[in-house]
Design goal:
This protein has 16 helices and two strands. The protein is mostly helical. It has a single domain, classed as Orthogonal Bundle (ABC transporter involved in vitamin B12 uptake, BtuC), CATH 1.10.3470.10. α4 packs across α15 and α6 packs antiparallel against α7. It is globular, with a radius of gyration of 21 Å.
Length: about 375
């Protein structure tokens, strides 16, 4: 049985007059959009896996996957070398790009809703500075130790992102409550301090000078997952973060209306704020361990989905996850093929591709932006 508070949250989520026709139209738009995005994601994965130094027909890839999953038992028309290329080399990277894109988009949606700030992105509370310093320390250590399939650089970047988020949250706690403004300022200050600490290490250490190109490439973003063991770890982290985010979608709707309104609807604001920060930080750190610092995805994808489908977070989180996954798969594909055999940092492409698309959607709305 729905309570009065739950009903009010659902009405706030849609921000539409309560009418059967408007509700049905909203439902149709959501289901059509979600299935369309899922289809685009599937197509992007198949096309990205098919392209490279060795071109493999998409039909072969679909047949391989259907046989591998056990859905069908199609006759083998492809060579063993093609199967090895797809299953052991390309598919892990493509799926990792989808996971990183989905994680960044969901994290961006969470932070934008929590902070009620359309300019918030996954790195808004300083995680980029912590990740950058962690990666620099990883290069300085220069050891071949592997943790759950990941090297020292991504592991320390992951730890740095999480630790920075925790410190930002602790600094913003005043009198048992979390100040949103203080959280933003603490995140900004920590990011600057840690970024310049990274620069200081680069100046003082000759070993880091030799690894400057590798560090610079990591800072600009690039999918570094190369094995199924790494995909499994990444999938586990992203799945936990996304499952938690989907579970608190309605609470996030209420919180985006302000603390007083949320509390009047029965939301325990401080506890929910801590949960949102923890989930967003986990998703951001997971994206860092799989792809470095990839900018713009967590900013533009939630914006685009909100402009097209509305501000309700219960739906927006799912749509952003799928759209972000498809977007980064395409960006990663382009980074591999545009200047082959070399690669472009994928962060450059996310800005070049996503920026104009976002500006077009924003201009096309022909009205003042409503968060």
């Amino acid at each position: 049985m729905k309570t009065a508070g739950t009903s009010e949250i659902e009405n706030c989520e849609q921000r539409l007059p309560v009418s059967a026709a408007a509700w049905r139209l909203s439902e149709i738009k959501f289901h059509f959009g979600s299935w369309t995005l899922m289809l685009l994601l599937a197509l992007a994965v198949v096309i990205a896996a098919s392209m490279g130094a060795v071109r493999i027909p998409p039909k072969e890839i679909v047949s391989m996957l259907l046989n591998q999953i056990g859905i069908a038992h199609l006759p083998r028309t492809w060579s063993e070398s093609h199967e090895t290329i797809i299953l052991q080399i390309r598919l892990p990277r493509v799926l990792a790009a989808a996971l990183v894109g989905g994680a960044l988009s969901v994290a961006g949606t969470l932070f934008q809703g929590l902070l009620r700030n359309p300019l918030a992105d996954p790195y808004v509370i300083g995680t980029s500075g912590g990740a950058a310093l962690g990666a620099t320390l990883g290069l300085l250590i220069s050891t071949h130790v592997s943790i759950l399939g990941f090297g020292v650089v991504p592991t320390l970047a992951f730890a740095g992102a999480l630790c920075t988020a925790a410190v930002s949250y602790r600094l913003s706690r005043i009198g048992g409550r979390t100040s949103v403004v203080t959280l933003l300022l603490a995140g900004f200050a920590l990011s600057v301090i840690l970024s310049y600490s990274m620069s200081l290490l680069l100046i003082l250490n000759d070993q880091l000078q030799l690894n400057l190109r590798a560090l610079y490439s990591w800072l600009l973003g690039g999918i570094s997952v190369t094995s199924w063991a790494q995909v499994e770890v990444l999938a586990g982290l992203v799945s936990v973060g996304c499952a938690g985010a989907f579970a608190i979608g309605r609470s996030l709707n209420a919180m985006s209306l302000g603390d007083e309104m949320a509390e009047s609807l029965g939301i325990r604001v401080e506890r929910q704020r801590a949960v949102v920060l923890a989930l967003g930080s986990l998703l951001t750190a997971a994206a860092v361990i799989g792809g470095g610092l990839i900018g713009f995805v967590g900013l533009i994808v939630p914006h685009a989905m909100r402009l097209v489908f509305g501000p309700g977070h219960s739906r927006l989180l799912l749509l952003s996850a799928v759209a972000g996954a498809a977007f980064l798969v395409v960006a990663d594909l382009l980074s591999r093929i545009l200047i082959a055999p070399n690669e472009l940092p994928v962060g450059i492409l996310t800005a070049i591709i996503g920026g104009p698309i976002f500006l077009y959607l924003l201009r096309r709305s022909k009205s003042e932006y409503r968060f």
